[in-house]
Write a structure and sequence with these properties.
single chain; Rossmann fold; seven-stranded parallel beta sheet; 13% strand
Length: 357
């Protein structure tokens, strides 16, 4: 298989699953981390690799190295692998997602932005989702009665126990301390703002073809998803806070042996659910808007990526994320998207607008 974003936590876990089950790694892709890439080349011997930063090509220990704007797509065209794990971060993952499906390969998707900005242009019924929440929903929706509502859970992120005044002065270092998961910088910031949960709602919309979707805070992250059925029953998906299970479900045709140990139910002490406080997490107040008009995802994602970059560089405060996103939505209104090129054009305009603010 191919692993895009192999230097991140999802990519590294995917490689360990591949090693455990004897899956050959044909190609890898990273943005800049050539040291991790070289270690992976030594261990997994891929035929070809991609590195985003062209100036680092000479430091990569592989005979066949791709780079540049269309490098990943060109690499995929040369791959025989039928399965591609897309664990790239942000909007940059969209083109590889589209290319993977155009080439008739199976898309194992951890890059939620692909669905957030362009779900209408992807064959969502062919996607193998890697998010723990969407893996949980997929598991719960097998052989089920009619659905009333889908529910995904949120930990609340690094600021869940802070008040708004404390959040206003929070630093990037504070935001990066996620209480339950070890993740990359962007997704950890998105978790703290609840932008991540908004994106996951939109993911579920495209993956499971329903707008009956909600989210609740469950601080332990033991319960990843729930489904409320029309008959009055509710089921929950419980597992340890480890992404290997969701990854294995996406990349393996069948799981016949344990990936993780079962969660010890006796360890669950205080299982509580809370509504998401929209005053504290204003970005999530856009849930009904994006479910009504998924095209808004392009604007929200672009503005959010600019905010995260600025916040991590100490160029703005944490609450400026709300201002940037809502101001962008007000400026651009409801975008008309009829073809894939519209997504890239709107994304570009929103980024240019946000950079000027």
């Amino acid at each position: 298989m191919v692993v895009l974003g192999s230097s991140g936590s999802i990519g590294q876990n995917a490689l360990q699953i591949a090693k455990k089950f004897g899956i050959e790694i044909e190609a890898l892709a990273v943005n800049k981390n050539y040291e991790i890439l070289n270690a992976q080349i030594a261990e997994f011997a891929p035929k070809m690799v991609y590195i985003g930063d062209e100036s680092l090509r000479e430091k990569v220990n592989c005979k066949w190295v791709f780079s540049g704007a269309d490098g990943i797509e060109k690499m995929l065209e040369n791959c025989e692998s039928r399965r591609v794990v897309n664990a790239l971060v942000g909007f940059a993952g969209l083109k590889p997602s589209v290319a993977t499906q155009k080439l008739g390969k199976t898309l194992c998707l951890a890059n939620k932005e692909s669905l957030v900005v362009a779900g209408k242009f992807l064959k969502t019924d062919k996607i193998h989702p890697i998010d723990s929440e969407h893996f949980g929903l997929k598991f719960l929706l097998k052989d089920r009665p009619p659905i009333k509502n889908l529910v995904i859970t949120a930990s609340g992120g690094a600021f869940r126990d802070l008040n708004i005044q404390e959040i206003a002065t929070a630093t990037p270092q504070m935001a990066l301390k996620h209480p339950n998961w070890a993740m990359g910088a962007k997704i950890t910031i998105d978790s703290a703002s609840m932008a991540n949960k908004l994106f996951e709602v939109l993911e579920a919309f495209w993956l499971y073809k329903t707008d009956k979707i909600d989210a609740l805070i469950e601080k332990s992250s033991v319960i990843h998803a729930l489904v409320e059925f029309i008959d009055g029953s509710t089921t929950a998906h419980i597992s340890k806070t480890d992404m290997k299970l969701a990854i294995a479900s996406a990349i393996l045709d069948e799981i016949k042996e344990p990936i993780l140990g079962n969660f010890n139910l006796l360890e669950i002490k205080n299982l509580e659910f809370e509504e998401i406080n929209l005053e504290k997490y204003p970005i999530f107040s856009l849930k009904n808007d994006v479910l009504k008009n998924p095209n808004l995802g392009v604007i929200i994602n672009a503005a959010n990526e600019i905010f995260v970059k600025k916040f991590l560089n100490n160029e703005c405060g944490f609450l400026d994320g709300k201002r940037l996103i809502f101001q962008s939505l007000s400026h651009f209104g409801e975008p008309q998207i009829s073809e894939l090129n519209d997504v890239f054009e709107i994304d570009k305009k929103v980024r240019e607008y946000c950079q000027k603010i």
